[in-house]
Design brief:
mainly alpha; elongated; 2 domains; single chain; 47% helix; 175 residues; 10 helices
Length: 175
């Protein structure tokens, strides 16, 4: 066997392995949107956005950390104790939890399956000034937060990266 034939065989083997790895990565991603998970209180993003409360006010980690995070109930109480409809049934519900020192355990709305082996981080997207709505939809108009874009669709992410001249190297997102 010549060195040319040997190198062609190695390239074919590499293509085979690359194809299998890409197939596994894609299998870990689904094209289905998940239903909105049950939440401990009926939180309305719409009501908060109508009062000019920006996403970053509650999801402070989006600009500085890997995860956007959620505020402690005490942050919510700081407004709702004073003026923001303190007698609303959902506000009363979370205020009771605060008094009992019980946390609100929120259902995660946008979930990447572990099988996708993705380490998504909000911080680089915020630094690149990617608006929250690009991935999360117009949450400000939602009474119930729900997935509107399948964040596990690798093709959608790669298209966005290409359109915005961001890295499409596999290790940028996958571990």
């Amino acid at each position: 066997m010549s060195s040319f034939q040997r190198s062609c065989g190695q390239v074919q083997g590499l293509k085979k392995w690359t194809g299998m790895l890409c197939s596994l990565a894609i299998l870990g991603c689904s094209s289905d949107l998940s239903e909105a998970p049950p939440q401990p209180i009926a939180f309305s993003h719409l009501a908060h956005s109508e009062n000019d409360i920006a996403c970053i006010r509650c999801h402070q980690g989006a600009e500085t950390q890997a995860q956007a995070g959620l505020p402690p109930i005490s942050s919510c109480a700081s407004c709702h104790r004073r003026a923001a409809i303190p007698d609303h049934p959902e506000v009363l519900k979370f205020m009771e939890r605060l008094e009992r020192r019980e946390p609100l355990v929120w259902g995660k709305v946008n979930v990447l399956p572990a099988s996708a082996m993705v380490h998504f981080k909000h911080k680089p997207h915020a630094r690149a000034e990617v608006d929250c709505s690009v991935c999360h939809g117009d949450v400000a108009q939602m009474t119930v937060a729900q997935s509107v874009i399948n964040i596990a669709d690798m093709g959608w992410c790669v298209s966005c990266h290409r359109e915005n001249e961001a890295s499409v190297d596999c290790l940028t997102c996958h571990h």
